[in-house]
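Re: duplicated header lines in exported structure tokens

Our pipeline writes sequence and tokens for each protein into one text file. With two proteins the header for the second block appears twice in some exports. Here is an export where it did not happen, for reference. First protein block:
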Amino acid sequence: MTLMQAFKVWWSYSWRASILVIPLTIIMTAWSLAGIVPVLEDQMQSGKSITDLNVDQLMHLATGGMSMTLISLLLITAVQVFAMRWALNSRWSDFKLKAVPPDAEA
């Protein structure tokens, strides 16, 4: 494979992954903010500072953040696998990509 062909495959994957990951990132960010904003609003309405959060509120925010991180990693991985499959199944004008099983004799 030449460098130009490798660049074409990389670019094909990159833009496909981007158009799939960007909306997913926007959704995950909005979902994260939907969990954080109510806690911060409750704290502000009670007249307390954000630094006065109790242990339960901090644990709620931390476990929610860890859950969101794990979910987003899984979803982004799935999206990237789909984008790679989509890119590798596309047609190329000057070359072909083919998945070949390893030679059992070699």
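Second protein block, exported in the same file:
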Amino acid sequence: MYVVVVGAGAAGFHLASRLPREKKDVELVVVEQDAEAADEARRQLDVGVVQGDGALPSVLREAEVQRADFVVSLTNVDAANMITCFMAKELGAKKTVARVRNPEYSGYGLVGRKSPYAPRKVVRPRSLGVDFFVNPEREAAREIVSILSSLYVTPMGEFGDGRLQWREFRATSPAVVGKRLSEIPFPRPAVVMMVATDGGLVVPSPSTTFGQGDRLFLIAERKDMDELGALFEVPLRSSRNVVIFGAGAIGFHVAEVLEKRGVQVKVIEKNASRAGEVSTKLKRAVVVQGGRPDRELLTEEGVGRADAFVAATGDESLNILAGLLAKDVGTSRSIVLVDKPEYITLAEAVGVNVALSPLLMAGSRIAQHILHAGAVSVAALGEEDAQAVEFMVSAGSSLVGRTVSEIEWPARSRVGAMVRGDTVLVPPGTTRIEPNDRIVVASSLDDLPGVERIFK
């Protein structure tokens, strides 16, 4: 597989480092206009690097996009990404992916007509040369709203059209710490797919004993997860009062969704012009102008009394500081945005509940699209050392008629659940597999190709 990544920023760099690690036969070239960023890619990535403007046909030819299976444009400029994809398609690229922030680009447009009676031409995204769009801001906003809607402040995701949920919990309660997996009194059916310890991610056995702070990746029916979570931490009340620091694209999207759900929202924005603009667009949210997030400001704006605090400025250091101060003045949930993946672990280690990287999420979404085209959905576990993948069983699959226990799965993989129509099985047990069943399998990156072969 030949892939060209245009833009070596956080998302492009992450994608370029991840693809060869997950798929050995990937040949990859990075195109970057900035000389310093191009040199950094040469030093740190084992890929080809072309310096130049990826929207220019001459640069794309140098990157050999005419033989590319995928061209992914991840610069900060929507128009440049669209032009790059259009040019790449014209030069012969098979598939293209564009990062866009403006949602109008990913929809359908009607071209004006010469007279009221003339037909109107519909412009589709693929007509513009783009096969797949990814919007990091929208991805992050959806994740934040999902976390705020839960009783727990932990990373999570869904499978089976929302019937299944996976969550990361830490072993801190007496019900878990020092206990073997077989001794944990789960009140509802659940599977611990992976455990992250000091030694890395492992697939637990019934005799696995959990230490203080170990991270467990649990899968269960969505309706059961709140009750299961009580084993690990005290449930919080659902967020009814949220303060958002930063009214950029992500902060605004989160505020917009929350106020439609009846949540009391306050937005703090440094820029007076942006604060005024957002206040006219939001119907019930309170928008105030505020500067740096010091204790006085956060206390004055009621952060200590809020159910949750979201730091969503474009400055990741400022977001981490704000998240820590919010916890210090009394809020029970703090969610912060960062760019660099390494800041996620750092922020959570110093006291922030959840740190999210929109660009990392975008890179992961694109990697899923490129590497797992046959999968229904994919979730990264831990620091992306493992993945949980939802597969659809085809009618001609060798799995049909067999049970999960009869299949020889790779050593570092575990089946978590099966979805058949409206029925959810956690774990699948001795149920015989049928066509169109969806099966969720967690696996280390090294063993994932072996899992994928089973479903081919």
